[in-house]
Structures are given as C-alpha cells and as structure tokens.
Amino acid sequence: MTQAGRMFLVLLGVPGAGKGTQARLLETKFGVPQISTGDLFRYNLKNQTELGLLAKSYMDRGELVPDEVTILMVQDRLTREDCQKGAIFDGFPRNLTQAVALDQMTAGDGGVRRVLLFNLDDDEAMHRITGRRTCPVCGTVYHVDYNPPKVAGKCDNEGADLVQREDDKPETVKTRLYVYYKQTSPLVGYYFAKSLLTDIDGTQEIEKVQQDLLGLLQSEPVA
Asked: Per the residue annotation, which of 6, 128, 132, 133 is the catalytic one?
C-alpha cells in the first residue's frame, strides 16, 4: 500500500483454494482484519447477540438464514475499531444480493478495491480438504500429505487421535462445491464487469501465492 486509506478486498474461489490462509497472512501484513461469515456467525451465536438470536431462530426451524441477517452482521462488524483501515472478506459476499449490499456499505470509502479469484480445479480442492485432519483437543489442523503429523493419526502437541471434521468429508465437500458454483460463481462475472477481478494461481505453494499477492497490493495506492 503506497498511501493511507481504507482497503476492502474480496477473496473468491472454491473451498480449499487457500483463501482463508492468505486472508490471515494479509491481515498480519497490513493490519486489516479478515472478515469471515463463519466467524461472524460463531461470534454472534456464542455471545447471543440480537443478530445471533435472530439467526438461531431460523436455524432452529431448519431454515437458511436470510441474506439480510448476514448483511447486518457484516455491517455491524465494519463499525468496529479494527476496521478503520478496511477489511479482507473471505466467504462474503456469497451471492449477488450480498455483493450489491457490500458495494453500498463501502461506497463512502471508494468501494471494494480488488477482488482476488483463487483458481483451483475441483480434484485438487477435494484432495486438499478431504486430507485434513484436526486435533479435537487443541484444534491444530494437519494434512495427510502436505502437513502430516510426526506420528500418523496423532497430534504432535497433545498426542490425541486426529479426526476428520464433517465439513472435510467427501460428500460434504461435494455439496460445498455445488453451492459455490450455484451461488457464488456468478460473482466472477459481476466483478469482472466492474474491472475489479484479478486471477490468482491457487495451485502454487502458500509462500509463492503470498509473494504474488504482496507484489500486487503493495504496488498500488489504497486511498
């Protein structure tokens, strides 16, 4: 970043493309928080906020939480002090309704500055996600191929048996991919039409992706 200002970035891509990992690294580098709808829902539900209780009322009935509730959660999150420099959106917007709402939220600060599309084919996405194993005690995440524990199936820190989360099982991943293509992929065209879209090679090593992103973002003004 070459000037002071608010930076709003949107990260798009199939599950497993590395969006969350890169968002956390960018958060550390620029001091701009990662905003994930999953984290927002967990925070509001855990703290029983007004929005959390509203979301829970839909979930308890087995219904999808409406876009309006998700949008209000994001809007509320942007009022916090750590968002003074902007935000990095991971998992939001998920559809065109949310994208238009985000445009309205950020309009006073120049809108979304750039949309980063992490490209990764479905087979590799499946392999990345289904290979994850998590420690039920400390939450450390491993991968059977890319980041295996020292002892197969055991957490390096706790010695506990590693588990495969429901979200990481093959059938669940297929559903997540289906939802992405149905709901979120139309955003690619939306942001392309706004000349905001930049393709990122999600098949590269984490460090190389981060290097590409930093080169891209540090070469342009953000005010």
From this structure: 132
